[in-house]
Design goal:
alpha/beta; seven-stranded mixed sheet; 9 strands
């Protein structure tokens, strides 16, 4: 019997419903139980199936991480939505993303912000993501291959910074590159131990506050490569 093909459009809508529902349960951790409608619109627009390997394409709208090669994963859609929402992006925002991966989170950011600067340490992943994003028409993205701990100082300051891998300590160079009034979302903690999705905010005077939200599990942020 032939395998029934997944209707990806229907699966995408079911996933969005699941993410909206999961936000209600996460409210106690993050202080809000709804997503910005613009974030939901970006999730609806960006084709996640274009960012995953062909062998797992039918799983593109399952609410879980998926392997993308080189020991890396595409993040769970709920976490992508939540981290994006926590940045509170405006249409004029300049965003630094640490960990391009396959480029899916990059595309979500590019739907919401004026410009996205994205850094990836694994060259084959970054190169493939750059080609994919260009093919999909994202002209407001710059990508470079380098150590994410260094950020992109030449383009600083940024209105928002998102780190899509777990850091064992707060990346001070990234905090320095965050502009006044800016927000950074980063998972803090070591692999195999408790990690906390953390919101860093910098006030107009340069003061920094740090607030943990919910427990997460990310691949480690590679340093010194």
């Amino acid at each position: 019997m032939a395998k029934k093909q997944v209707n990806l459009a229907e699966a995408r809508e079911q996933l969005i419903d699941e993410i909206v529902s999961e936000m209600r349960f996460a409210g106690d951790y993050i202080g809000k139980d709804t997503l910005d409608p613009q974030v939901i619109a970006a999730l609806r627009k960006v084709p996640r199936e274009a960012f995953v390997p062909s062998e797992v394409r039918e799983l593109a709208y399952v609410n879980r991480p998926l392997p993308i090669g080189h020991g890396q994963t595409i993040s769970q859609p709920f976490i992508v939505a939540l981290m994006t929402d926590m940045l509170a992006l405006t249409p004029a925002a300049r965003v630094l993303e640490i960990g391009t991966g396959c480029g899916y989170q990059t595309a979500i950011l590019a739907e919401l912000a004026a410009w996205v600067y994205s850094v990836e340490v694994v060259a084959p992943l970054g190169e493939a993501a750059a080609e994919r994003l260009k093919r999909l028409g994202y002209a407001n993205v710059d990508l470079r291959i380098c150590d994410g701990w260094l950020g992109w100082p030449e383009q600083a300051p940024f209105d928002a910074i998102i780190v899509t891998a777990a850091a064992p300590r707060l990346p001070e160079r990234l905090v320095e590159q965050l502009g006044p009034g800016g927000r950074m979302v980063v998972p803090l903690g070591r692999p195999g131990s408790t990690q906390s999705l953390t919101l860093i905010e910098k006030d107009a005077a340069g003061g920094v506050t740090e607030a943990g939200t919910l427990p997460v599990a990310f691949v480690p942020l590679v340093e010194g490569r």
